[in-house]
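worker-03 picked up job from queue 'complexes'. Input manifest follows; two sequence lines, order preserved.
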Amino acid sequence: MIDLSMIEWGDIAFATWETLVMTGVSLLFTVLLGLPLGILLFVTASGQLLERRGLYRVLSFAVNVLRSVPFLILLIVMIPVTVLLIGTSLGVEGAIPPLVVGTSPLFARLVENVLREVDRGVIEACQAMGIPTHRIIFGALLPEAMPGLIAATTVTAITLMSYAAMSGVIGGGGLGDLAIRFGYQRFQTEVMVITVALLVVLVQFIQHAGDRLVLHFSRK
Amino acid sequence: MRRSFAAVACDVIRIEQLGKTFRVGGREVSALSDINLEIGKGEVFGIIGRSGAGKSTLLRSLNLLERPSAGRVLIDGEDITGFDRNRLHALRQRIGMIFQHFNLLNAKTVAGNIDWPLKSTGMLDAAQREKRVAELLALVGLTEHANKYPAQLSGGQKQRVGIARALANRPQLLLCDEATSALDPETTQSILRLLLDINRQFGLTIVLITHEMQVIRTLCDRVAVIDGGRIVESGRVADVFLHPQHPVTRGMVAQSDPLTAAMLDPSHAFARDKLRGTLVRLTYLGDVTYRPILSHIAAATPARFTILQGEVSSIKDLPFGQLLLELEGSEDDIRKVFAELDRFEIHHEVLQ
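worker-03 finished. Artifact:
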């Protein structure tokens, strides 16, 4: 039987808050880095608005390399960089740089794919109107891709949340940290169960909110 | 090219020796070769061909969405193939384009779509833009739909938005890329009427590509038939339609108009053994259509004739007629008939 009497609800609440902060702040930086990178991947690809085959190959390769590194390894490899950037590799702050580096390439690739789904004819119509390329990208391409971009952000947010939990292994904060220290190392199954249940609820919530936003921006 | 046409007073477009080759899997494939065309101001010029004939590539060379590999495209005397990016943008703002699949921005409303080229070129302030959008909405009859999104519109309405958007920056030239091919026949007619109105109202030059002869008949002054990347025939629509020379043209005429097809080749339509006289096809254009030619000929010559088949109609605004006659009489009688026909400038050809 699970005995809930010994659970420190205050700890759980704080850990949930930390997880939300890690996910939120990392998501912000992931979008800030990954969106431009994804746009760059899209427009420099062969046959696109600003075709630059060499640049595309370099970017694409870099993205693939980062995406091939298992996140657990990335967490460890990133420790010196994180210390350099933030001063510590521990806690909520320490987890954010590896999270951003781990998910930005994923997000960039998702963005690239979403932009590719935008009807070529629409872009061509803009070109035929004599609209400068930067205006086409920001005034037509991105608004047309908005539902897809939100869906990609939702997927990335959920990935971030599970990565954030994983960062508990190297001393990051949040629910993952709680699950490892109490649930795993002290054999408090109850903590583990509660933590996982909370993560399930959070993921459901993010997915639901994302779907609602996608629907709101869909004009089809 | 078989026919020569009167030189147009003010050429807006001249295509000289235009060629386009694509590299496909290391091989050079020719999409267009040796294209020469002159399109006059205010003219509606049609380019017709089967799919893959190169008509889309040709149309898209006029605003350099497709870069020609050879030759020149002169607009108002200037070779646009040498334009830098800024001049190309400025040129494209003076050339409207509409598309088979409309290519509207789904994330913008009808008004937003029409406003988009105005906003992006930045030549008007917000109040002027709003006024211009309202004008254009009224022109294409979509005022009530201003705040709808494209997904809420029918195909014909979408194309009307496309037309309004293309006209936003007051272009002198409108390119139509299979603009009615995704529409049903009734909607096609209404869009063609709108284009004709615009052509007349603003003196806008229209270049269109299509695979439908009907579109050419309704809208165009002149037509070029393209096949295998070459212009195989061109001239006034009525001339090309009534006297198609190239097999591709004949095929397309036959498909759009079975009556003309039967008159071009009556051997399938009539049993030879029932015909005793001379089979003659008459074609005529313009005012002569309204004159009592046949009764005149009947009175002037002893030859007798039977009308086997015939059509009197109009192409755009030009009335025309074509008749398949069986003439009976002496050689001399028939010669007299032909002399009378020549006097009225009625084209005649003996089919058997």
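worker-03 released lock.
Chain A touches chain B at residues 119, 121-122, 124-132, 135, 139-140, 143-144, 146, 217, 219-220 (CB under 8 Å).
Chain A has nine helices and no strands.
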